[in-house]
């Protein structure tokens, strides 16, 4: 992703990280922020695929 473009594999990795974090059912502020950051990054990545 060093060039600002994501591969499908990198996007899949982000989805996996998001699902894993969500499945932990954590409600602390750090987890909520990380989930939001991942969602934002996934949206960006979907629009910037190689």
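^ Assign residues to that structure.
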């Amino acid at each position: 992703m060093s060039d600002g473009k994501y591969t499908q594999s990198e996007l899949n990795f982000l989805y996996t990280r998001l699902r894993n974090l969500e499945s932990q059912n954590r409600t602390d502020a750090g987890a909520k922020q990380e989930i939001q950051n991942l969602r934002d990054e996934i949206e960006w990545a979907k629009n910037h695929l190689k």
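The two ends are 9 Å apart (CA to CA).
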